[in-house]
Design brief:
By secondary structure, the protein is mostly beta strands. It is about 0% helix and about 55% strand. It contains one helix and 26 strands. Strand 17 and strand 18 form a beta hairpin. The longest helix is centred in the C-terminal third of the chain and has 4 residues.
Length: about 300
């Protein structure tokens, strides 16, 4: 039987759509976003509490922020259809606009063990099947590696870099990609299919044991799966929409959503949109850095996309 745990609220500002928590190894700080609020929140984790240090307004939909390798150099961030450089003081520099001509916005992503940045998009305003998954390599070259996506969501990599775990929420499937360091995706296997009515798979993280924690939007829970798909643990979350997860030591940190809930949600789930956490007995890596240049070029054709 799966282990059952319960998460507790650790505070933080209320997000309309909290997402993409990341532990930054350079500072030891937690970074997370409010996608629709257009904010990046930065703070410290002490035990089961979070102290906000600053919030940065990025003036657009706030996608994942990925650290650069060196201290003080900020992050590469997906914002709306663009990649930007976000400095510690909030100064923004535009790098590239891979999705500018499309009805899409970037949603989630992560760097792999080699320092390549992967980031995926989703259709806006109900547009279906227009999302794409991009890979920006350590030479700064960006190319689509997967297209026809509904909602590009959770993405993380095995410690050896040979596999990626990925969710297109619209398919309700957790997939494992076989990864080649030069070619990107070379194979795909369905690992978990999520039954309708039990929550939609959203953000994820791979722990030090190689297992996958998946947040379940509308599922009031986070699940942990073995690499081959066995359900190992259920974390009950006292809000309807857990969105994404990260590990800070053996503390699982969960972002949540307060937007688009039924009337009266404040009484049933007063902490919706805040951070939650639970001790899980296993750790995970801090956010991996993008190790390419800030001069990014984009290949617009879909050759090689799966």
């Amino acid at each position: 039987m799966p282990v059952e745990l319960t998460a507790a609220c650790m505070g933080g500002p209320r997000a309309e759509l909290g997402e993409t928590p990341r532990m930054d190894a350079r500072t030891g700080e937690l970074l997370w976003t409010d996608i629709t609020g257009g904010n990046v929140h930065v703070g410290t984790v002490a035990g089961a509490s979070f102290e906000l240090l600053r919030s940065l307004d990025v003036a657009g939909m706030a996608g994942p922020a990925t650290p650069l390798p060196e201290p003080g150099t900020g992050w590469v961030m997906a914002r709306e259809s663009e990649l930007i450089h976000l400095a510690y003081d909030g100064v923004i520099s535009k790098l590239a606009a891979p999705e500018a001509a499309r009805p899409t916005a970037f949603n989630d992503g992560a760097a792999d063990t080699e320092g390549n940045l992967w980031v995926g998009s989703m259709g806006k305003n109900g547009v279906a099947g227009e999302g794409r998954l991009w890979r920006f390599d350590t030479s700064g070259n960006g190319q689509v590696v997967l297209d026809g996506i509904g909602i590009s969501n959770g993405l993380d990599f095995s410690a050896d870099g040979r596999h990626a775990y990925y969710v297109d929420t619209s398919t309700r499937v957790l997939r494992r990609f076989d990864i080649d360091p030069q070619e990107g995706i070379i194979g795909s296997t369905d690992v978990v299919s999520f039954p309708a009515g039990e929550g939609d798979p959203d953000g994820l993280v791979v722990d030090d044991a190689g297992c996958i924690w998946v947040a379940l939007w509308d599922g009031w829970a986070v699940h942990r799966y073995a690499p081959e798909g066995e359900l190992l643990a259920v974390v009950h979350v006292p809000v309807q929409r857990p969105t994404a997860v990260a590990l800070a030591g053996n503390l699982l940190i969960i972002t949540t959503c307060s937007g688009w809930l039924a009337d009266g949600w404040e009484q049933e789930q007063p902490d919706a949109g805040k951070l939650f956490c639970v001790t899980v007995g296993v750790g995970g890596p801090t956010a991996r850095a993008y190790r390419g240049p800030l001069s990014i070029s984009v290949v617009e054709d879909r050759e090689g996309a799966r």
